Amino acid sequence: xxxxxxxxxxxxxxxxxxxxxxxxxxxxxxxxxxxxxxxxxxxxxxxxxxxxxxxxxxxxxxxxxxxxxxxxxxxxxxxxxxxxxxxxxxxxxxxxxxxxxxxxxxxxxxxxxxxxxxxxxxxxxxxxxxxxxxxxxxxxxxxxxxxxxxxx
Length: 152
Prior knowledge:
Elements lengths: L1 H18 L3 E10 L2 E6 L7 H4 L5 E5 L2 E2 L8 H12 L3 E9 L5 E7 L2 E2 H7 L4 E2 L8 H9 L9
Parallel strand pairs: 3-6
Antiparallel strand pairs: 1-2, 1-5, 2-3, 4-8, 5-6, 6-7
């Protein structure tokens, strides 16, 4: 009885996941707090990126700037990003390519926006391209003096 139920659940998950705008990818490397390397999950062979012969690719979180590894809290931002995403499946929304060729993306894990979680912990700030995205989260991190906002 449990095997048919499990089969139905797996089929429903696969159908729903393939029809959502946010596709599933596995994080294969975390470079720093706002840059990760993604690989499509096995059933998404029709992805337009794969049609171009790309098997994995580097991405950058949209609307967020984390400290670099040689800056204060840079390693903490990378560690937090690794704990959230390294080796795990995430949902990704592609927005555009940046000038360096990386894709700007919004990454979700457990339904939470990973960029928003980084900003709420004070491990990143809003990127100047978008003035309003993550504004409330950054204001709250500043108010409670979290992470990079401790000495303000």
